[in-house]
Amino acid sequence: MVRHREVTLVDLVDRLLGGGVVISGEIMLAVADVDLVQVSLRALIASVDTVAEGAP
Amino acid sequence: MIYVYAIGEEAATVDEAGLDDRPVEAVRHGSLTAFVSRGVRSAVAASPATLRRHDRVVAAAMDAGTVLPMRFGTLVGGDRDLAAVLSERGQELERTLDRVRGRVEVGVRAEWSGDEPAPRDGRDFMLAKLERRRAARRLADAIHPPLAGLAADSRCTLLPRDDTAFACAYLVDRGREGELARRAAKSGAAHEDVDLVVTGPWPPYSFSEARDG
After folding, report:
1. Contact call for A29 and B77, based on CB within 8 A
2. What is the C-alpha separation between B55 and B46, in angstroms, rounded?
3. CB contact under 8 A, B196 and A56
4. Which ranges constitute the DSSP H helices of chain B?
5. Cβ density class B13-48: b for 16+ within 10 Å, e for less
6. B205 with A40: Cβ contact below 8 A
7. Nearest 5°: CA angle at B148, between B174 and B198?
8. Which stretch of DSSP H or E encloses residue B8?
9. Measured CA distances, B20 to A9, B43, B44, B136, B179 (Å)
10. Closest C-alpha among B2, B24, B22, B1 to residue B12
């Protein structure tokens, strides 16, 4: 079975928090607290695993 | 603070609302353009809404030209910091832009289709876990290479989550997404123990970092 363009939160989390250009060092002044982000994302994955609000 | 969504080439207008409902602006620096929102508060929490917002802005910027998405949550203090990043990383960013030009990312993940029987004891649990890893490896070895053959580049993670055997990202020429999806569908039909989920086209999130060679 193959589904197309059903963008779930898992797909977004994998890409937006695991990919992309990373700026390191002093230039990057602030991000959301990393531990908090990870905790909340684990909860999100558990609760809204299959949420699909349609293609962006 | 300036929130940075993506780095691209052409300065294009992005009509999507940015984070904190701030407008999205294209800031030119040399041959590069940063897609940014000014006045974003000092930390952006990851939530379904903010992740989708970031993705929509990047996707809109990609509609106008080649872009490299930034990691979610990237903030710089001001225009001087942004200019410094674009200067220092300029050559590397241009090389990576060259690599993704005319290409999109397609995701393929293999979710286990059946329910796992509950383990009887700890030994049983460990054996089942080992068997899962072997099965995931076998599936990835069977399904991934033909898909990688259609792509300029690929990335795979084995067992990223309990419900997933593997997750791969493919960088394919724009217009070949359908071919990759069809080939994945064929593989999906041949492997009953997993459901293949194909998503995309995505901006090149998994291919935005410089790579040697």
Report:
1. yes
2. 12
3. no
4. 48-64, 79-88, 90-100, 122-148, 177-190
5. ebebebbeebebbbbebeebbbbbbeebeeebebee
6. no
7. 65
8. strand B2-8
9. 20, 11, 9, 41, 38
10. B24
Average pLDDT over residues B33-60: 89
B212 pLDDT more than 80: no
A11 close to B (CB below 8 A):
yes
Backbone angles phi, psi at A29, to 5 degrees: -80, -35
Whole-number percent of chain B with pLDDT over 90: 65
Interface A:B, Cβ pairs < 8 A: 151
Give B28's pLDDT tier (boundaries 50, 70, 90). Answer: very high
**CA–CA distance, B171 with B148 (Å, rounded to integer):** 9
The CA-atom distances, in angstroms, between B6 and each of B35, B40, B74, B101 are 5, 15, 10, 14
Residue type, A31: V
Q: How far apart are CA B208 and CA B205, in angstroms?
A: 6
In this structure, what token pair is assigned to residue B21? 């409902």
pLDDT tens, position by position, B116-143: 767 778 888 888 889 999 999 999 999 9
* Residue the block writes with tokens 């090149």: B204
Q: Angle CA(B183)–CA(B189)–CA(B190) in degrees, nearest 5?
A: 95
Which stretch, A5-9, B115-119, B188-192, has highest mean pLDDT?
B188-192
Instruction: Rounding to the nearest 10 degrees, give the CA dihedral for residues B53, B42, A18, B149.
Output: 50
Write the ipTM: 0.86
Give the model's pLDDT for residue B211. Answer: 67
